[in-house]
Design brief:
It holds the Pfam family ABC_tran. By secondary structure, the chain is α/β, with parallel strands linked by helices. It is built from nine helices and ten strands. The strands form two sheets. The chain has a six-stranded mixed sheet, with helices on both faces. A four-stranded antiparallel sheet has the order 2-1-4-5, covered by helices on one side. Bound molecules: adenosine-5'-triphosphate (ATP).
């Protein structure tokens, strides 16, 4: 791997003292491509992703990005680091009563002065970029519609545009397709793969659908019980690995 964008060492998370959900994760993420994390429900995938942008507080360990330990940052330094990490959520997390365009512009919130955001006076360059992103995700004619008028697939496209509006150095996606029908799920993954590929932004995605993981990721991480039990390219993952990750084999 060339210089990793992210280097996680000995990451432990305990929501309750003495009951670790992550048991000392070591993981380096390359500077490009999609890394998919698969594993059964409750195995700590969301916790791992959320430790990276500190929506969850790590208990122990380091998360190095750009020479800084994200696990130790506070205040302004943490906010600055978060600007560089985009996030796409399962339930989209759009502001329902705002327009599609305004939702995309919130991706710039960490950059524009608060008074401008309050007055909704974004710089011209930001407006142009938001329109370009809406175009790229196939929603240019929806710019002025309220977010709550969109379908799930359309909302997730807005979620992707908003995350890219941040010009992130890294994108985290937590089950981005789990609320979508199978066809829309493929379309959303295709879009995310293409746009992040063009922008050169590496992605870490938690995903339940193993086929989608294999189709779009360059690397698959298999987790079970808060530990990594598989780490390799999509074509290296076999039924024995799936059985180890998810348990049993009658379902394979
Ligand atoms: N805020 C919290 N407080 C206490 N326990 C939590 C909290 N968030 C998650 N957990 C627990 O931590 C464990 C890991 O949860 P996590 O959501 O990270 O798993 P996951 O692999 O992402 O699951 P899923 O695939 O269902 O989203 C679970 O046992 C869960 O109940």
């Amino acid at each position: 791997m060339t210089q990793p964008i992210l280097e996680i060492r000995g990451l432990v998370k305990e929501y309750q003292p003495g009951k670790p959900v992550l048991h000392g994760i070591d993981l380096a993420i390359g500077a490009q491509g999609i890394t998919a994390i698969i594993g059964p429900s409750g195995t700590g995938k969301s916790t791992l992703l959320r430790c990276v942008n500190r929506l969850v507080e790590p208990t122990k360990g380091s998360i190095m990005m750009g020479g800084q330990d994200l696990a130790r940052l506070r205040g302004g330094a943490l906010r600055a680091a978060r600007r560089r990490i985009g996030m796409v959520f399962q339930e989209y997390n759009l502001v329902e009563r705002l327009s599609v365009m305004e939702n995309v512009l919130t991706g710039r919130l960490g950059y524009v002065p608060l008074w401008r955001a309050w007055l909704r006076r974004y710089p011209r360059a930001d407006l142009d970029r938001a329109f370009a992103l809406l175009d790229a995700v196939g929603l240019p004619e929806h710019a002025t519609r309220r977010a709550d008028a969109l379908s799930g697939g359309q909302r997730q496209r807005v979620g992707i545009a908003r995350a890219l509006m941040q010009s992130p150095a890294l994108l985290l996606a937590d089950e981005p397709t789990s609320s979508l029908d199978p066809r829309t799920a493929v379309e959303v993954m295709e879009l995310m793969a293409r746009l992040t590929g063009e922008a050169g932004v590496p992605v870490i995605v938690n995903i339940h659908n193993v086929e989608l993981a294999k189709r779009f990721a360059v690397r698959i991480i298999g987790m079970t019980g808060g530990r990594i039990v598989f780490d390799g390219p999509p074509d290296a993952i076999g039924n024995d690995h799936l059985s180890e990750i998810y348990g049993g084999e009658d379902w394979i």
